[in-house]
Amino acid sequence: xxxxxxxxxxxxxxxxxxxxxxxxxxxxxxxxxxxxxxxxxxxxxxxxxxxxxxxxxxxxxxxxxxxxxxxxxxxxxxxxxxxxxxxxxxxxxxxxxxxxxxxxxxxxxxxxxxxxxxxxxxxxxxxxxxxxxxxxxxxxxxxxxxxxxxxxxxxxxxxxxxxxxxxxxxxxxxxxxxxxxxxxxxxxxxxxxxxxxxxxxxxxxxxxxxxxxxxxxxxxxxxxxxxxxxxxxxxxxxxxxxxxxxxxxxxxxxxxxxxxxxxxxxxxxxxxxxxxxxxxxxxxxxxxxxxxxxxxxxxxxxxxxxxxxxxxxxxxxxxxxxxxxxxxxxxxxxxxxxxxxxxxxxxxxxxxxxxxx
Length: 357
Fold this sequence. Notes:
The protein is mostly helical. The chain has helices at 3-9, 12-35, 71-76, 180-185, 190-196, 250-259, 271-282, 286-295, 299-325, 332-344, and strands spanning 50-57, 83-92, 147-149, 156-158, 176-178, 236-238. 34% of the residues lie in helices and 8% in strands. It is globular and about 75 Å long. Helix 2 (12-35) packs antiparallel against helix 8 and helix 2 crosses helix 9. Strand 3 and strand 4 (156-158) form a beta hairpin. A two-stranded antiparallel ribbon has the order 1-2. It has a two-stranded antiparallel sheet with strand order 3-4. The protein starts with a helix and ends in a 13-residue tail after the last helix.
């Protein structure tokens, strides 16, 4: 941070401005995690089946119909609709405008097949999550429990419903989680748990013994899968890089295909890889731009900018409130309209005497 910016941090109003810039930086990072390198102007249909941010439109597809649309279609085809944010799903093609939408065409790409046969759907598309099948956020949830996504089924689970006697690792010290049902269906993964699973400190030295059989892989030449006759029960938390330890011999690959988990060998499949792609795509953050702009101003201009910024922030909050109340998506055009109106109503410039502190 430059000396100019450090000086202005001491001013009462500037703390608010810098805090907002930092908060916006965090929001941008969160957005990158969800949106990745998603395009907000072009439908992703032509890209085929890919990991992407998705939204289920309950206005167009009420239960029991399950479908999802890409980010761009959520803006250009479903504005003002009731949308359920699905975070990301792997190997998914945008459904907007296909046969599930009963004649409503996609505004961005009208040349779509009637069905995306490789798309997979679960109760998340109904706005329900976890084994408890509750909405998120849950109006009846008084504990505000953390939600975690399984990297295999991609459902979201409350931490209290993960079925693990070991509990969650401390301070989020894990990379990925696989739920109880998926560990049961892919029990060969317990063979890797002794080396790559992350446990809470109190349970690190006392793993629960097996209550279920483990998938057996005969000891073929070149196989690197650890051989284990016991397994734990419940969900499993994994350390960073655990996927790279999975054996790639032909026998193991056959097992992965049978279990429909070949994607575990794809280094671009993980949500972490998806998030990193989003960070590269986002380039310079608004926080960095804001700090550079603030540092380039003189002291008088800095104080004036801060006052005008706080004034703008309050007006913008009031303007956006109506979108929140009506559950409408805020478009780029809406923000441009706001600033256009604000420019026409701009107050006379505030002059701050140079001798004031």
